[in-house]
TrEMBL record:
Keywords, sorted A to Z: Calcium, Cell adhesion, Cell membrane, Glycoprotein, Membrane, Repeat, Signal, Transmembrane, Transmembrane helix
Residue ranges constituting the Cadherin domain according to the UniProt record: 12-98, 99-202
Main location group: membrane
Gene Ontology CC entries for this record: adherens junction; catenin complex
Entry's Gene Ontology molecular function annotations: beta-catenin binding; cadherin binding; calcium ion binding
Gene Ontology biological process terms from the UniProt entry: adherens junction organization; calcium-dependent cell-cell adhesion via plasma membrane cell adhesion molecules; cell migration; cell morphogenesis; cell-cell adhesion mediated by cadherin; cell-cell junction assembly; homophilic cell adhesion via plasma membrane adhesion molecules
Classification via InterPro entries: Cadherin (IPR039808), Cadherin-like_dom (IPR002126), Cadherin-like_sf (IPR015919), Cadherin_CS (IPR020894)
Protein name per the record: Cadherin domain-containing protein
Subcellular location, record wording: Cell membrane
PANTHER family documented for this protein: CADHERIN-11, CADHERIN-23
Amino acid sequence: YWINGTRFGLESAIDADVGPNSLQSYQLSYSEHFSLMAEYKAEGKNAPELVLEKPLDREQQSSHLLIFTAVEGGDPVQTGTTQIRVKVTDANDNPPVFSQDVYKVSLRENSPPGTFVLKVKATDQDEGISAEITYSFKTLRGIGNMFVLDHQSGEIKSNDPIDFEISSSYTISIEAKDGGGMTGECKIILDIVDENDNAPEVVFTSVSSSITEDAEPGTVIALFKTHDKDLGENGEVTCLIKEKVPFRIESSANNYYKLVTDGSPQLQ
C-alpha cells in the first residue's frame, strides 16, 4: 500500500552528445496518478523519479501506461521515448458484499430434514486469495441446530423437523469472510407456514352427574372449552352434536361452550 508522495526511481537516459546538445530534460505523459520529478545539480542530473500523486485502486484500473520521454538540447531537438507500464497489485481492501442485505423466505411446517431453504451469495472485488469467500452462521442463538450451512456454497438446509408451534419464524445472521479476514453480513428472515397438523382438544370444566326429566330447556348440563394449537383457519374450532338428542351447544365465550337441554329430555 503506497501513500501519496511515494517515489519510484527511473533509469536515466544516456546521450552520447555533450554540452548544449546533451540530455536536457525529461517529460511524462499526463496521468492523474503520477508525476515526474528530476532535480538538477551542478555536477549533473539526478536520476528521474516517478511520484505517486493519487492513491491507486486496482478494482478501478489494474494497470497504467505512461510515456517517458528524454529531451536533448540540439537543433533540431532529438528525443527518446519508452513506455512505463505500472501494474497495480491487489490489496485486500474490499469486504465481501452479499447480493441482498436482507433475504425473506418461507418454509412449510413439517418439512423434513435436508429441505432446501436458501442459497446466499457474496462477492468480493479483490482477487486471488483475498476474494475467496467462506460462509458461517454469525450466531446460533435462536436457531440451535435447526439449520445447516455449506461453508463454501452458502446453501442453507433444514437439519431438524420444522414445527410451527415451536417457532413461527427464525432470524438468521450469515457472515461471509474473505481470505484476508474481511467480513460482510446479511440477515435471513424465515417465516414458517402453518400446517393443519393438530387435532382440536376438548376439556370439560364442569359436568352434571344427573338431570331430572322435567328440567327446563336451557338447563346447563356441562361446561367445556376447546383448543387447537394451529393458528388462523387451521385453529378455528366448530362444535356440533352429530346424534339426534335433546341437547344443544351454546357458545359462552372465546372457545368456551355450554351443553344445555333443548326441550324435554324425557325418554319416549
